[in-house]
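Problem statement: downstream parser choked on a complex file, so we are re-checking the raw output for the zinc ion run. The parser issue turned out to be on our end (a line-ending mismatch), but while we're here, posting the original submission so the record is complete.
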Amino acid sequence: MKGSERMAARAARAIFLAVLVAAAAFLAFDGAFAQSDSAQSGRYPVATDVRLGGDLTETRLVLDLSRKIDLHAFTLADPYRVVVDIPEVVFRLPPKTGESGRGLIKAFRFGLMMEGGSRIVLDLAKPARVQKAFVMDAEAGDPARLVLDLVATDRASFLRQITLDEKALTQPTAVQPQPQAQSGDPRPLVVLDPGHGGIDTGTRAPSGQAEKDIVLDFAKRLRERIESAGKYRVLMTRSDDTYVPLGDRVDIARKANASLFVSIHADSLPHGEGDAQGATVYTLSNKASDAEAAQVAAMENRSDVVAGVDLKDEPDDVAGILIDLAQRETKAFSMQFAHKLVANLKGVARLHKEPLKSAGFRVLRDPDVPSVLVELGYVSNRDDLRLLMSDSWRDRTAESIAKAIDGYLSAHVASAPRSTD
Ligand SMILES: [Zn+2]
């Protein structure tokens, strides 16, 4: 190679490198831009409108989407439901969408089921078959559309269809405990369980605040309090707006070998059913301590129905009896913690007139982990709601629950480590 050729080659290489660097910089910039956009909606299809048509014989649901997606529809019985699983979608639908329906669709819900997956659950007025379920491409100025056609059927046919659907039925998988839970850290573990999440909003205040948001924020504050004291580890059954099936919440506590499980909820009374107020602490019992406790448990246990999870595999009665035998000691511990919790809350939070109750909550059924469920207050009561939405109330109450947890664990775990671990 002559000297001049070598220089030309070097120059070419320099230009090539410069172009490469510029391209990399451009790509990096583009990447950063795309990421901030994805927080809005760039990454996910957006649902912008929904329409229902038809009657009790045939009903059509149409959902407008920013782009075409895949879908999988199946049915569930008792109560009759149609579940439509789709990739994660940003729902930008008018408030109160789905609260009432039309024809075969009594009402419907939609939301995040797990990371990457959204779900629409339709409550049916009577048994119905999914005749068609498809998504049309956007064309000629029209958005992409998800179309679901339902046709009335009888119970026997409905149940037959479920058997056919069964193989295709996908259940959300258990949330993996965060890595910190499996570390060699010997400190006792507290599992905090913010109720509901994702498609399951829980109860709602008349002014619109959702239980799932209130309890998640509260649980995060509580986690912060416990962690900053440094004596215990904390694991949350959910730390964002995703749905976790009730059984998985219990499994998370058991698998992580938790010393205590605290489920956090907020209550409401239907309009016209009095005006209860204050916090209540619940422990597990097959027999509810009163009618209101039974009603609260029934509402909280509906979570899986709301989210479209199939319940038929839960052998409720048998499990109930077996668990009952194994659970006597755990129950005694749960009760001791519940008493401590009520005593601590007395100073800072308004308490229900009977603040300590028991009922058959699904999330309290771990035979090994002392478990309580706290209803922080009633979103249906104006004064309770004001407190529930207040930062200072949340902080004070989280502080008092953290103290109760410390009081209980110092007495039961630190002095008597679980030798079976
Ligand atoms: Zn709840």
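For whoever reads this later: The chain has two domains: 46-168, 179-414.
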